[in-house]
Design brief:
- By secondary structure, the chain is an alpha+beta fold.
- The protein has a single domain, classed as Hotdog Thioesterase (Thiol Ester Dehydrase, Chain A), CATH 3.10.129.10.
- Helix content is about 25%, strand content about 35%.
- The strands form 2 sheets. It has a 5-stranded antiparallel beta sheet with strand order 1-4-5-6-3, covered by helices on one side. Strands 2-7 form a two-stranded antiparallel ribbon.
- The longest helix is centred in the first third of the chain and has 16 residues.
- The chain starts with a strand and ends with a helix.
- The relative contact order is 0.24.
């Protein structure tokens, strides 16, 4: 499991001061990007080097409690590989101050080659970063 702390901002929220539901996926993408940075690389560099893409093919979230404007959240990501070509990024969002659960869910990602957009095994280097 990998944990990333993120700050929420006014631009993440709707007029009621609550994080817009679509931004929950943005927060997960931000945390995923942080995984690569912590490993000393950039995701885009690895994708370019290995000539692959990592499209999302499924996304699900259970909303438990709203994220309020200005609150920090911790995102816990637990990558679960489903064979050689697919990874399910299980996640949980926690309020940084109260430690209350805010949301949980997953995004399913498939590795595809750039030339034909066909599924292909994750390169060992990318898999290693995601496994932590």
């Amino acid at each position: 499991m990998i944990e990333v702390r993120l700050q929420t901002y006014w631009s993440d929220c709707d007029p009621a001061g609550i994080a817009y539901f679509g931004n929950f996926f943005h927060f997960i993408e931000h945390a995923e990007e942080e995984i690569f940075l912590r490993a000393g690389t950039m995701r885009q560099t690895m994708l370019d080097t290995h000539r692959v893409w990592m499209p999302r093919v499924e996304a699900h979230v259970n909303f438990v409690s709203p994220i309020k404007n200005g609150h920090a959240v911790r995102i816990r990501i637990n990558p679960e590989f489903k064979g050689e070509k697919t990874v399910r990024m299980n996640f949980e969002m926690i309020d940084d101050h109260s430690e209350a659960s805010l949301a949980s869910g997953y995004m399913t990602i498939v590795c595809v080659d750039r030339a034909h957009f066909k599924s292909t095994p994750f390169p060992a280097e990318i898999r290693s970063v995601l496994e932590g």
